[in-house]
Design a protein that fits this description.
By secondary structure, the protein is mainly α. The protein has 28 helices and two strands. It has a two-stranded antiparallel ribbon. A hairpin with a 5-residue loop joins strand 1 and strand 2. It is globular. One of its GO terms (cellular component) is plasma membrane. It is found in: Membrane. This is SSS family solute:Na+ symporter.
Length: 672
Amino acid sequence: MSTVEAPLPQGAGYGVVVGFGVAFALGMVWVTAQIKKHFNEDNKSTETFMVANRTVGTGLTAAAVISSWLYSTALLGASFLTYRYGLALGVWWGASASTMICCMAYLSIQGKFYLHELPKRRAPNAHTMLEIIRVRYGLGVHLLWIVLALLNNALVFSAMVLGSSSAVTALTGMNVTASTYLLPLGVAVYTYFGGLRATFLTDYVHTFIIMIILVWFTIKVIVHHEIGSIGALYDAAVQAGVDYPVEGNYKGSYLTMRSNECLYFGILHIISNFGAVIMDTGFWQKGFSADVGSAVPGYVLGGIASFSVPWTFGTIVGLGALALEKSPSWPTYPNRMTEAEVGAGLVLPYVAQTVAGKGGAFAILLTIFMSSTSIASAQMIATSSIISFDIYGTHVNKKPTDSQLIRWSHIGVVITSLFISTLATAFHRGGVDMSWLLYMIGNFTNPGCFPTILALLWKGQTRAAAITAPIVGMACGVSVWLGTAYAYYGEISIKSTGGTMPNLFGCAASFVVPLPVSVIVSLLWPKEFDWSVFGEIKKVESEHGRTQEEPVTQEVLLTPERKQYMKRMSRWAAFWAIATICGHILLWPLPMYGAKMTFSKTFFTAWIVISLIWIWFTLLVANFYPLYDGGLRQIWTVIRGSKGNAENSPEEVADSSASSSAPELRVAPKGE
């Protein structure tokens, strides 16, 4: 850990972590109460708490998607890995985010509708991804998926907390254990009271602040007097390649896409993020909560916009560190950072205090706090939904009431907060840093990826295949990971198991192996699934106000206009999934890797300018589009205090937040 004196006092750390946490908690509790008052959204209803009544609009969905990739690990990791390996890293990191989200857009629309020769409603009332697994394969497979999903959430969440607490400690000198426990505290309060709707709202508020700081900070680094311009940043990066050539990079340069380590990391991170997204019930819940007409455009827009954050921010901060570390104002001057400091993610905090002093350090402290709490809220809702709906409501009490599910959701939020903080503390005390978790996480999150996709897209996957594939995949992945670590380094230790190649081979094995295993087992003992069984999933009847709606019949649901609309959305989702994979992976970084070139100053300048334009586009999508897409109307309604019609459903009164081009679906009341 760093021995550099923190630029901010401990009071600043406690003030942000505790003070802002309490302020946001109180603010979101108030907002939740106002939403209940004016829009009839009852946070004591499971449908509201877990899936926000499925009425979230395109703008808020896109902002939530961008927020989902504003991990503190992304901000810290993209910066320190660019500092290590060069500018190729930012492109690969961006690709590993955007492609996953656009693929998730396709799965999201399939989760709502099944589109083949005759469209049928597939799982429109699902609350969690695990609920779909239970209905299709039964309780045994459901238990296995609970383990896989909880493992995924625990590792992703603890990695975020670990990286954030280390950065907070570096910036303020705050005790790292105290930071680890206090960071999720305020989040637990507003998530406890507000549920998923509060998560969407806090995602938006946090993302609004974060994006402003990121846009300001990228410009601040470039115009800092020790750098001064894009051209000067280029010159400094060229000199760094001469002084500290990067092994595996073309001519040792930081300014080349021909970087072996960046390529390996890109492949590793892409396949790991497939697992992290698909096995994260939080992403599925956001898909379920989106209005039918908002899921695909929201996910696609958010996915494309999210590319800029690791690319632009990681590139400028990482290369900026190379330029600034020779300055007397650099915290470790005249020495370079130690490997422990780099691995702990301290590149960004050091750049912040160099270019903007205590103000910059405070801005980054606030950014890390915002990104951490935003992700923490989504992770808490996801994990609490598993505890309440999939453990208590399935295996403990098979006929739970709405209030019982809500109570266990609240218990789940508290349990998650305490457990993750304890796990992150254990990792820290055991000598594990954010870099190690970042690399190894896919070994455990990938095995359920293909079986989950096939559960929704292929009626031929059998129960035996669903059980066998992830178990075999994880066994192969972990075996390859540990075996390769021993083969490369002659030992199995934290250092060896954190190496690039052991994790690359292990993650690839755990990702790929389940696919052929599932297909082979399914074909050996074939049995086709009847998609109509998903209709057994019902909404939870509310004990507070509205009761469960009348069933929606195929005749009412499948009007010609709605069939055509859903087919079009499915095609668009598939198009963008393929387009981002081709554009962000196959047609951009891979050909440039094969080109064996270093950037000229003109090319580098154009590269940075385009990246800055892209991050400004992300700012517009994340900050202002949700306001245009109904947000201003809702805000004005709350401010002026006009009460919504209590007789209307949330879907009707909250249309401003769920604007959609989908053909209207109206279910006639009984007897009409």
